[in-house]
Design goal:
70% of the residues lie in helices and 0% in strands. The chain has one domain. It contains 7 helices and no strands. 17% of the residues are buried. The longest helix has 17 residues. The chain is mainly α and 132 residues long. The mean pLDDT is 90. Helix 2 crosses helix 7, helix 4 crosses helix 5 and helix 4 packs antiparallel against helix 7. It comes from Flavobacterium granuli. This is Glyoxalase.
Amino acid sequence: MNHRDKLIKEIRGESLGNVSNQSSSEELFQNEVLRPILELQNDLFIASFLNFISKYKRDFYTKSVENKLSIIENAIQKDIKFRNALKGMIIALFTTDEYALYIQNSSNLNKRMMNLLIERLKNQVQLFDEDN
């Protein structure tokens, strides 16, 4: 393992979620790679979404919670530039071996990645109030 990969694994920390012998390779990747990265990058994701709001959704703060949740989901699923920026924040913390695994099944892993991120941001919707 090269120096960069070793540092990345140290920074990310341990697996999050359940990993068992019955876990699929995608579940393993999700819990061993994606979840720790999402947790590590959480503050950056919040800052990035706040920037998205200020540029493209200035009326976000006047919306109901239900509408805010919908905006979060649509921003990540439909705004390709924003989605790719978020994906880059995650992929940048893959080791070279993890990247090799990722490119073999990137479509399914991208879906998992974005769904996890959507849920993470939705669960923190209160951080996107104007008062904060």
